[in-house]
Every structure is written in C-alpha cells, then in structure tokens.
Amino acid sequence: MERSETQLTAATGSNGAVDSAADRPAWDSKIQYVLAQVGFSVGLGNVWRFPYLCHQNGGGAFMLLYIFLLLIVGVPLFFMELAAGQSIRQGSIGVWKHISPKLEGIGYSSCVVCFYVALYYNVIIAWSLFYLGNSFQYPLPWHHCPIDVTINDTGTLKECSSSSPTSYFWFRKALNITNSIEESGEFNPIMTGCLLAAWAIVSLAMIKGIKSSARVMYFSSVFPYVVLFIFLIRGLLLDGAMDGITYMFYPRLEIWGNVQVWRQAATQVFFALGLGYGSVIAYSSYNPVQNNCHRDALMVSCINFMTSVLASLVVFVVLGFRAKTTALHCVAENIRLLNLKMANESHQPWLPHFNMTDPSSVSIPAYREWYSQYRSFLGPTITDCNLEEEMNKGVEGTGLAFIAFTEVMALFPGSPFWSSLFFLMLLNLGLSTMFGTMQGILTPLMDNFSLLGRHRTLLTVSSCALGFLIGLLFTQRSGNYFVTMFDDYSATLPLVIVVIFETISVAWVYGTDRFLDDIEIMLKWRPPVVYKYLWKYVCLLAMVGLLAASLLRMIFKRPTYTAWNQQTASETTLEYPGWALAMIISLIVFASLPVPIGYIRSVLKSRSMRATPSPEGPGREMHRELYTHCNSTDQLESNSHHAPPQEDAGHHRIGFLPVGNEQYQLLPQQEDEEEEEQDTGV
User: Fold this and answer.
1) What segments bear the compositional bias annotation Polar residues (predicted)?
2) Beta carbons of 498 and 114 less than 8 angstroms apart
3) Domain residue ranges of the chain, discontinuous segments joined by +
C-alpha cells in the first residue's frame, strides 16, 4: 500500500525532475478551492443552455432525466478526475502520462480543446463588456428604434421596425453582422477593443497563478448568485411570472422515448461539470493529498445542479412576463382593429361581449374564447393571442441574454440599474469559467515542461496575447457565425473522445481496484464498490453512446447555422458552405489527433530504446525482465511486507501497469542494479 501511495503522490515531468508536493502551489483555504471549482463548472451554460433544454424537452421530465444521468455518469466521472488530479498532483498531461506514457496524448487533447473554448468564450465576455458599457444611460439604447435620418418624416429604420429594438441593437449595433458566414466583412472596431479588454482582465487575474485568480474568485463566483436571487425576487412580482414557472415544471414524460433528448441531457451533464477540459484535474492537483475529494464531487455537482434550477426559475419568470406582455399587446392591437372594423361594417354578428373601449380590461382567456367562436367572420387581420405559443418561442444562448432579457429589462422601472446588474453577472460568470479554462491549459504545460514552469508570467501573458490575435476571427462582422461554429462543433466530439480515453485509462489500464486502493489511502476510507462498475461499464458505455449519437447526427443532418438577413430583418437557417465544413472537420481532427499520436510515439520510442540500448543505461524505460507476474492480492501483500522506508518512498517509484488481469512486480536485484535502475518509472 505504501508503494501504491508513493506512485500516486509524485509524478515525473518531461524533463525528468520530480514535482515535489512541497514546491507546488496550494490553495489558501478549502473555501477558496470550492469557489474555484464551482466558478469553473457554473458558467453561462447554466444560465442560457439548461433553461432552454428544459423549455424544449418536457420541463420537469427533462429535469428528472438530467438528475438520473448526473448521478450515474456525471458524479462518477467528476469524482474520477478530482481523485486523479489530487493523488498524482499534476495537470492533465502529467496525470495520464503518469498512468502510462502511451496516454499522454489525452492531456494534450484537453489543452487544445481548452484553447478552442477560451478563444470564443472570451468573445462572449467582450459582448458582455459592450452591453455593460451601454447600460449606463436612460433610456437604454435598445428600448426604442432609432430614427431613419435618410427620410424627411419621423419614421424609424425599416430593419428595426420589422423586427424589434433589441434584435436590431444586437445584430446591427453590437455585431454589425453580415447576411451569412461567406460575407466576412471588415473588423468591428468596438468589439475588437472589448475583446482586448477581456483578455487583459484574464491576463491580469491569472498572472500570479492560482494565488491571484483565487482572490478574484471570491467575488466572481459569489456575485452571480446574489444577482440571480435579486432577479428571482423581482421577477416573482411580475405579471405572468407564475405562468412561466408552471410551464417550466409541468412534466411531459413522453420525451423520455426520444433518443435526441437523452443525447442533449447527457451532453449538458458533460459540459455542466467541465469534464475532459483538464481544469478539474488542474484545480484538484493543488489540494493536499488527504482532502476529501469524494465529498467535493458530490457538493460541487449538487451546487451546479441547484444553480441550473435557480437560473431556470429566473429565466422562466422573465419569459412568462415577456410572453404575457406580448399576448396582452396582441389583444390590445386586435381590439383596435376591431373598432376600425366595427366603424366600417353594418352587419356585426361577431360583436364581442367584453368592453372594447378599454383594451386593458380584457383578459387573454376572455379574448381567446370569443375568438374561437367567431374567427370565421373576422378575416386574416384579426389574430389569436396565445400565451402558450409565446412561451413556446424558446430562445437560447446569445438570443436569451442579448435579446430576450434586454427586452424585458427595458420594461423595468430603473432599467439601467437592472441591465448593469445583469451584464455584470454575465461578466463574472464568464470570467470564473475562463479562469478555469486557462488553468486547464497553463497548469499541464508548466508541470510537464520545466522551462515554462520557471516563466509562469511570460507563459500567461503570451497565451493571452495569442488568444487575442486568433480571436480577431470573431470580431469581424461575420464573427458571430464562427462563435456558433466553435461552440457547436470544436469542443463536443473531442471532449467526449478525451473522456472516453480517460475512463479507459483509469478503469482498464490502471485498474479500478488499484485506483480505489489509492483513494482509500488518501481518504482513509474506501469509496463504495459501485464506482468500480460505474467507471468500467456504465460511464464508458454512456460516453461511447453519446459519441455515436453525435457522429450520426452530424452525418445524417448537415450542419447548419442561424443567420440574420438584413433585408427581411429576420433569422434564417443556412447550411455551412464546403470550406466551413472542412474547417469544422479540421478543428475536430486537430483536437483529437494528440491521442493516437501520443500512443504511436510512445510505442516507437519504446521499441527504439529496446533496439538500441543507451551506454548510460536503460534510463526511464521499463525493462520487463525485472518484473514477474502477480495478481492484485499478491501485490498488496508484497507491498505490505516489503514496503520501502519512508524516507526513500519518493526515490523508488515503481508502477504496476495492468495488462488484462495481470500485474507485474519488481524482482529482487543486486544493490548496484537497484542504484542503476532507481529512476525507472511508468
């Protein structure tokens, strides 16, 4: 058992130097670590992706499905990453390389995907900065349509009057968007400046590693919860709030038979916890070895889910108010048309029983009951006003934050205050996730390359500068389409592939029994045996199923994106052109390639070392002639009877890689041979 503990509590970097626990940065307190993990896992997706999925996929039924998948897939995989990072005390590259050199490509794939996400995620932070800056004026600039100065009268711009003030401000003022991804357009100077500011904030917050970013976390992780509760209390006082909440929780159990709903729920679990990015591993690697990572996994997962529910309540309360306001406006407009119709027609069999002189006194149910009886007499100009249809007009992502919410906040008394509060919340949600994403890039590189580790500040600044330069792709007029492309395709498949190989490496290469043994050493108690079967079978099959479903969906349904047409002032769905499809495939392949490349490189290196032995000795390669077969029981007994002295534990770090159900145990050697092989590693 001591040998197993030694194996997991030290790891060798690429330069051959052991990263001792004493030299590694550490969290100042447990609350600092928890805030960092919660801040990373709770991001913009909890606010605008989870509520949309609930909205579209059965409300309460989707929540039950989400909880089920969270318990059997999300929590076990999250616990696995926390335990691996805490025990080996390395970033994602070092953790999987430590388990087997053939698996080091997993860590590099995680770094590539983290960089993809950081590129477009900081653009969203830049958008939030832009809207935050425009919130300090009254009335809000997206409250009314601007006047068309090209005509003599006081008419408004056609693009705005044909859509809405909030849509016009988002697509024309903020993005100045083109009609399709094929029209690149020039750079948007305002957004370029906001992106530079966003990268500067990230760089300054992370320039001293976790010591500086953790201090920012105290505010960026807590502040969004304060704002969400304020919005919930304010929203519950709005007309239509209860209609929205009822719509949210009403269960439609028939959706459980839809495979796509299962795919969407599994994907949301996967991304909500930040699995595969390497950030969870990086943060946990700064923990003391005895930290209770099992409790952390349960606590962070629970906080993440409850945050999603809280955000959904806020969203549905606001959408309920928006839907009822729209429906009442529809009733008022139809009554105005009815008054005109009544003045021009003598025969009026459709004459309503409600008071047409006061539209505000007419309820939506009363109007709909009258409309259903006399619609055949009314003609096409008089329409139905359906509250449920308005609720069904679900919006997600940027549409929810920058169109739907801005529309509602413009109706609040003191709208600049509410707008500033909302976009400050989005800014903090984005930054806390961005810190974790960047940590998933920087920590593995610094752990694995000693030169980078000695120049932490230069690496941080250089990474942020490179991110800004590549991020200019997203600040051209067609940049929003590239954000959508990266969000939909650059991370999904590569991350699923990464987590599949992570699970294989722990469950089948390293061995679940040995992994649980090592966790028992850390926690002083053994986790339930159910984790063994969840890791080996349930999680692995679920991830393979998710990968297959995502691939089939891409093959049978050509990738599309939503574009804004300036002439019609409406959104249209377009297919990606050929070069864009090639770009999508390249992003996926480039992020996935390190896994097979790392395996092939390790195999070739091993064969080369065996074919041409070094005159200085075998070095770091493992020589099979020094090992004999033994099972897990023999290994544990051997370790308990022949444990090395405590002071030499970090010196003799022998690993046991399982091959099928076999294990290998080091045979006794002569003293000089032991000294020669003292650096042998796995």
Assistant:
1) 1-17
2) no
3) 30-326+394-606, 331-387
Question: How is residue 599 written in tokens?
Answer: 């395996």
Tokens of 275: 């699995």
Is the dihedral angle over the CA atoms 24, 29, 30, 31 positive or is it negative?
negative
pLDDT in tens, 14-39: 343 334 445 677 787 888 888 888 88
Three-state secondary-structure class, residue 662: strand
Answer yes or no: is 46 a known binding residue.
yes
Predicted confidence at residue 620, as pLDDT, reads 43
pLDDT at 594 over 70: yes
Nearest one of 484, 396, 470, 399 to 180, comparing CA atoms? 484
39 annotated ligand binder: yes
Q: Say which DSSP state 643 is in.
A: P
E strand segments, 478-622: 560-565, 570-575
Closest CA to 522 of 21, 105, 29: 21
Query: Was 134 annotated as part of a binding site?
Result: no
pLDDT in tens, 366-393: 888 888 887 777 777 788 888 777 777 6
Contact 121, 128 (CB under 8 A): no
Q: Is 530 helix (H, G, I), strand (E, B) or coil?
A: helix
- Cis preceding linkage at 251, omega within 30: no
Which residue, 215, 275, 214, 298, is CA-closest to 41? 275
Look up the CATH number of domain 30-326+394-606: 1.20.1740
Angle between helices 539-556 and 259-272 (to 10 degrees): 120
Torsion sign across C-alpha atoms 244, 247, 249, 255: negative
The answer for residues whose C-beta is within 8 angstroms of residue 574's C-beta and 6 or more apart is: 180, 181, 560, 561, 562, 563
Task: Name, in order, each residue with C-beta under 8 angstroms of 442's C-beta and a sequence gap of 6 or more.
Answer: 206, 209, 456, 459, 460, 463
DSSP letters of 283-337?
HHTTS-TTS-HHHHHHHHHHHHHHHHHHHHHHHHHHHHHHHHHHHHHHHHHHHHH
Helix, strand or coil, per DSSP, at residue 285: coil
**Tokens representing 508?**
């089948």
Q: SS3 for 659?
A: strand
392 is in an annotated binding site: no
The DSSP letter of residue 646 is G
Token reading at 421: 């509060």
Query: Is the distance from CB of 666 to CB of 6 less than 8 angstroms?
Result: no
Tokens standing for 404? Answer: 């739907």
Give the pLDDT confidence of 467-506 residue by residue, as tens digits: 999 999 999 999 999 999 998 888 888 889 999 999 999 9
Which residues are 666's β-sheet partners?
Answer: 627
DSSP state of 576: P
Q: Where are the alpha helices (DSSP H) in 449-528?
A: 450-454, 456-471, 479-485, 492-504, 512-523
Query: For residue 400, what pLDDT is reported?
Result: 78
Q: Is 429 labelled a binding residue? A: yes
Task: Give Cβ neighbours of residue 515 (< 8 Å, ≥ 6 apart).
Answer: 80, 83, 506, 507, 535
Q: Which amino acid is at 616?
A: E
Cα atoms in the 13 Å half-sphere on the side-chain side of 225 = 15
Tokens found for residue 184: 């690149």
Q: pLDDT of 310-333, one tens digit each? A: 998 998 888 888 888 888 888 888
Beta bridge partners of 574: 561
